[in-house]
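Why should sequence recovery work at all? Because a backbone constrains its sequence more than one might expect. Tight turns favour small or flexible residues, buried strands favour hydrophobic ones, and helices have their own preferences. The token representation captures these environments compactly. In the example below, the structure is given first.
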């Protein structure tokens, strides 16, 4: 099949060089004019490989991650994993900064390297707490922490008004204030 394709290319160029019209060549071979002129441009008497396919891949990839950096990423990830530490892309980047690796890859590049080498699997086994308790409201009875009060106060701003919510959460007689603001834009000047 590949030899047949090459023969079509050679024959088409020979017919074109002999003076046959491009329309008749393209019609007989079932090809486009673009195809014909591509092979006429590539024709070279001195080079026997002119009729072979060429790769569309760029000759140089300047942003390609060096293989040494890929190996360092894999080794750092393995080291962190074996120490039962967090071994995600951010932790790998921090570890590489401490090691003084240059150039440092981005977090996205580290994630690509891990995915390419199939190092994105999760830890096996159950989660074990590290000793720091998650902060929780001290409720002992059901529905004890569901009481909340919302109020809004308007604060003037340059580009519009700010609504300042007054939010309080009650739990066992204690008040837990939380504050945040929203900007409201008006259509009136």
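From this structural description, the recovered sequence reads:
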């Amino acid at each position: 099949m590949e030899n047949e394709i090459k023969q079509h290319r050679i024959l088409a160029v020979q017919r074109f060089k002999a003076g046959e019209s491009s329309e008749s060549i393209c019609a007989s071979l079932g090809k486009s004019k673009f195809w014909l002129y591509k092979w006429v441009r590539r024709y070279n008497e001195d080079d026997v490989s002119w009729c072979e396919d060429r790769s569309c891949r760029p000759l140089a990839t300047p942003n390609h991650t060096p293989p040494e950096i890929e190996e360092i990423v894999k080794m750092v990830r393995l080291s962190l994993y074996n120490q039962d530490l967090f071994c995600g892309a951010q932790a790998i980047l921090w570890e590489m900064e401490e090691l003084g690796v240059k150039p440092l890859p981005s977090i996205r590049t580290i994630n690509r390297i891990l995915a390419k080498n199939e190092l994105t699997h999760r830890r096996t086994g159950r989660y074990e707490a590290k000793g720091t308790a998650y902060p929780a409201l001290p409720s002992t009875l059901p529905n004890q922490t569901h009481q909340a009060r919302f109020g809004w106060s308007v604060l003037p701003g340059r580009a519009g008004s700010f609504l300042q919510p007054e939010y309080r959460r009650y739990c066992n007689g204690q008040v837990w204030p939380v504050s945040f603001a929203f900007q409201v834009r008006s259509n009136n000047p």
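A few observations help interpret the result. Residues 158-173, 175-189 have pLDDT under 50 and may be disordered.
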